[in-house]
Amino acid sequence: MTTPSSNTQSNAQGSFGAMLQQARKNKQVSLEEAAAELFILKRHLQALENENFADLPQAAFARGFAINYAKYLGLDSAKIANSFDAAYPNELKAKSLNSTDTPLRPMGTLQRDTHNRIRFNPLLIIAVIGVIILAIFLFRMVSNASKENSAESITVVEDISATEQAQGAAIDDATGIGASGSALNLGGEASASTASLNVTLTDTATVNITDASGSSLISGTQTVGEYELSGMPPFNVQIDNVDNVSLMLNQEAVALEAYATDEQANFELAP
């Protein structure tokens, strides 16, 4: 009388290995993918599907593998466990019982696959942040420098005096009036010596006159009267209410109405 083999017993109870394999194929999952998800060695999953118990670890571990594999594939884990118990060879069960007093060691587990994962180096992250901060700092420095240069350029343009503008645009003609509206060359050639001004007011008016050295010869609201002035030409002349004022340079009359706009005149005057 012969004893049925383990495979025969497995077939009598239903092949759990075939159910595992068929479920995996239906799920369209490879052994490699299942092993990575379950942290179980591929060769142990293969052994479960083939019901090759000799290639599996101790019965307790192998049974746990079968239950987890069944849950992963969506099978009835209790049914798979019962089928596994029925198919597990008696001689391997006895061997497992004899080795229970030995220290248990984890078998068949896998570490999570990190091959395709990106590992971040903290020092590298700090270095990248430092580079970004430095770039922002340099960008701000360049922007501020550009703004300062623009402001200086504008200041230079605005600092051009009315005298320089008049001299740059003056065109001598028969009347001695420059193109910029400045009274130039009224007495012939320009003189580096002082010149005299005579201001006569017939009514209250605001008169401001400074000479080339920046000295104020007359300033503010003036009353009726005659004012004798002298200084270094050219003179910067500003007059409100020009109808109330007459002006002479070196005893020569200056036609204020030629430079007046809305009874206000602002011009350079030189002999």
From TrEMBL:
It comes from the Bacteria. The keyword Ubl conjugation does not apply. Keywords: Membrane, Transmembrane, Transmembrane helix. InterPro entries: Bact_Cytoskel_RodZ, Lambda_DNA-bd_dom_sf, RodZ-like_C. Residues 199-268 form the Cytoskeleton protein RodZ-like C-terminal domain. The chain crosses the membrane at residues 120-139. Gene3D superfamilies: lambda repressor-like DNA-binding domains (1.10.260.40). This is Helix-turn-helix domain-containing protein.
